Amino acid sequence: MAPSDRLPADATITVVGGGFGGLSAAAYLAANGADVRLLEQHDHLGGHAGVLEREGFRFDTGPSWYLMPDAFERFFGHFDSDPTDYYDLERLDPQYRVFWKDGDRVTIRPNRENVHEVFESYESGAGEALRTYLDRAERNYELAMDRVVYERRERLRDFVDPDLLPLAPRIRLFGTMDDYVSRYVEHPKLRQLLEYTLVFLGGSPHNTPALYSIMSHVDLNLNVFYPGGGIAGVVDGLADLAREQGVEIETGVEVQAITGAAGDFVLQTDAGPCESELVVSNANPAYTERELLPPTARSHDADYWESRTYAPSAYLLYLGVEGDVDPLAHHTLVFPTDWDDHFEAIFEEPRWPDDPAYYLSVTSQTDDDVAPDGHHAVVVLVPIAPGLDDGPEIRERVRDTILDDLAATTGVDLRDRIVVEEAACVSDFAARYDDPRGSAMGLAHTLSQTGPFRPAHRAGLDGLFYAGAYTAPGIGMPMCLISGEHAAEALLEEYPRAADRPQPTVK
To answer: Amine oxidase domain spans which residues (predicted)?
Structure first.
């Protein structure tokens, strides 16, 4: 008997995990008539995109950049809505400020002329080279999104398609980002400005395909926004939309085991057993296989997951600070003039970096509600290799190093003004989110882990599907929204009687 023949029109589907991928998949499935329950082990939704509140300060604990507004508009548009129906959006100006440790700094504003002038000031002809680079990035972005990312292409044979022929001349985009960028600009600081977005993908300029030069279009053409309430406000909006579609959301419920198969799943939880006909796991596939599934239902052995290249982890400081923090912007980047050693410390010879690059989020420069009057909410993030020892002595040493470096590089000395302080690091990501090696983002976007080389939405177990950053299209809030769409689409194709309509309305 075919699996779909066992399932009624209002099949019960359980989504494990309430991150962006899980909320997206749940909303699509419920909109197509399924009976959807979402179980989240934490008291908050959003996965890594959590919120920390202390003594009048509020911090986003995970992602803090709202990029690719078009992807959010597309998602909400599938439900006849708009992001602004759920949260306000403010275009940031400046978008971000960059400090180099030699005393140099630049401010990036949300207009192309500003950025062209910045580039030309460092290298004659670089302004025009940037114009060419961004125009090509825009064309490549539109092709990649419309014909690869938004299309569900999980298998290599899905790439044997005439629709992809316009991408053929762009074969150079499968070289490294650093090689590609060097074709346009030579100055190392300009190359950093075009490559820093790789951190959002969990990669380095030397191991990430040049295809991701499209991120410069995202950054410099589509610009950077701030959602009202921070990223937590976006999570709330997604949850509200999912509930409007009929999703039943339960937080504080931990799934401890998944047994059975399509039509006859039992999820053991700390609140008791939960029966379900189909399952979508937004928990990462490595954890799902190793901790939730019986050995006979696993698609990969432990060696497979050990051999993956994981995106960086992070050392994070959440600081409530008294007084002014200018010239720090809402988003601030601090770079050594040569950042190769830091990337080597992440991907090649894992160790704590000697001269780290790092990022600061100061949402209180835009949002008065995230800190008491006369104070600022500051988040410091240092990308580091996953799996590092992060004991108390190491954390304290790195904390002091970063605060000293921040004062020396930007002139902003926070050391005697901190009134609230929390931290997170490798072991916290492993414990809270079950991330392999304490990665903060998942699988890096190396060439061998891009597109069809990422874990598929269909698991090896009949009736189990995956959504989230570990699957295609990959890391980042917009990508996870699309991943949820693709997981729902795959499920509804394989089990058409699981919904009132035979196909999801996601095109």
So the answer is: 21-492
